[in-house]
Every structure is written in structure tokens, then in C-alpha cells.
Fold:
Amino acid sequence: MIPSSPQAIDAGWLSGALQARVPGVTVSRVDVERVVDATNANATMSVVHDAPDRLPNRLFVKMAPVDPDRRARLDWASMADRETRFYRDLTVPLSIAVPDVYAAELDDDTGEFALVMEVLGTGRTRMPDLVGGLDPALLGATMGEFADLHARYENLATRESEVPWLTRSGRTSDYGARLLRAGIDGGAALAPPFVAVAERYIRDRDLLQDAWELGPATVLHGDGHIGNVFADERVTPPRIGFFDWGLMTIGSPMRDISYLLAMTLSPADRRANERRLINEYLEARRRHGAAPIAGDDAWFWHRLQSAYTVVASCQSIVPRPDESPGRSAFAAAFVRRAEEAVADLGALDAIDEFARR
Structure:
């Protein structure tokens, strides 16, 4: 049985969970260092074990949120299912860097899960500047890696064979619309283009969902913002790696590319580099044999996809009562990236153009 919280993890359970990927390991002691209960319950722990050449002595554990209100508000069970199956069941090597995961446990009946992985930001992995953004130079290789992922899974038979558990995200939830409405009505200080896109989304979610599905269907990470990436310096030159695969889905390849550019780079760096990086992505798609996307189509889809950054910002527009200064700075920068993207790219005009077609 999967423990109910990080604090409930003991040496016996952890030994059994790890042995699928670290055969024969025995854990003799577990000390929880820190627990953060947010979208999920995240913990770092120090571990005493007998496999120092195969397993680090500090581990990161991700589990279902402990707080019942968070469980009620968020679709944590579906996110847990997707992320755990990604690490547990996807056995095809991907060119995209991901964390080293040592155990991926999922209770299919209850949705309880536990991911045990490396602690990022140590050794030769580095966490990004969440406010300042990524160095654009780090994204060059990522364009090719996403092209590789997208090209592979644009093939329906490949998706059905390798990721049969992954489906397109549904449209029924009004979670984002409710939070956007509350933020606007509550007087959140938001730029007019952001508010205009939010109001359009609240009024006509299906139209925007149709716009965001333009393009060939493929497997997406789905949530590649600045808080879900790390710099992988174990290779030369360094590249970007991705964690938090709980929102992976089937959708338009430009969702991954547009969201990555808008939500990892500073607005100034995005403006200076987005056309070049999109062109690099399109060229990489050609090399990988993906369905061709014309440059004009890619740019129009990029403008449409920028509107999604507004919905993605729904949890960041109103500060939480218990928010730390670091979290507040991250949230403010997150919203600013979205505000600048929809203004620069004329997201509302692109939506109107799509509606007229």
C-alpha cells in the first residue's frame, strides 16, 4: 500500500518500491527533511541504504496532496496517473532530458501515487532563475528534442502502441474560467490585453479550445513553463530538461513550443528569439519526418497559443494568504510573461481571425 504522506514513508516500504529499478537495494533509515504541500505533497529526504554506487543518499518524493481541499479543487488523480505512467510505463528512450526516477508507484483504484526521483538543483543539474528566465541559448537543442518527440507520436499507431493510456485532455472543467473571473472581479492588477483574452475565454471556451487544437495531433509535455524545467549540465553543451509531466496530453505541437517560449524566456528575450527558434523547430520537424507545417501557419498558431498563457496564469493572479516572497515573485513574473505575450502577439486579434474562418 502506498503511504498516505511523505512522513509515512518508512525504510521497508521504500526498499520495496526502489527494488524494481535498483535491484537488491535495502534502505535502513529514512529522514524527511522538508515537506511542501501544494498541488502535490513534495518532500526531500535523506536515505541510508546499501547501494551507494546506484542510488543517491538524498531523494525527492512527489505524492498526492495531503490537504483535502487541494484534492477537491484540483484534478490531482488524473495528473498523477499521467505522470506516473510516463515514468513507469513509457519504455521508449526519449531525447528530451527528464529526472532520474527510481520508483513510480500508482494505485489504479484510488489514484494515490508516489514518485521517487533525484533531487534537482544539485550535482550537475541546476534550477533556472524563475523570475529572470532562461538563457535563450539553452533552447536551441530543445527545439530538436521536441521535434523528435512530436514527430514520433504524430503517428496514431505509435501512440496507441506506446502510450495507450494517454488521451486528449477534456473540455469540461471550468476551473480556469472560475479563477480568472474571481481575479478580475476581485480587482487584480492585470494588463488590458490579458483581461480581454481572459474575458473571451470565459465567454467562449470552446472556440479557444478549437483554435488551440490546430495542427497535427501528438504527445505533448503540456506544461513547459519556467517552474517545470532544469538545466542539465551532465551533457555538453548543457540542455534543458523537463519534469512535472502531469499535464501531458494529446494536442497541437505548437502548444509545447509557444508555451515554452512565452513562459521560460524573459519577454525581451522572447521577442528577440521566438521567430528564430520557431524556424529551428520547423526545420527539425522536417529532419525527423514529421508532417510539414508552413511558417505562416506556425506563426499564426503561435499567436493563438499565446492566449493559453492567460488560462495557465489563473492560479497566479491572486496572491495566496500564506504565499512566500519567493512564490510571490515567481507568480508575478509568470503573469507578466503572459501579459507581454498576448499583447506582443496580438492574441485577441488572432482569436477573432480564427473565429471568422
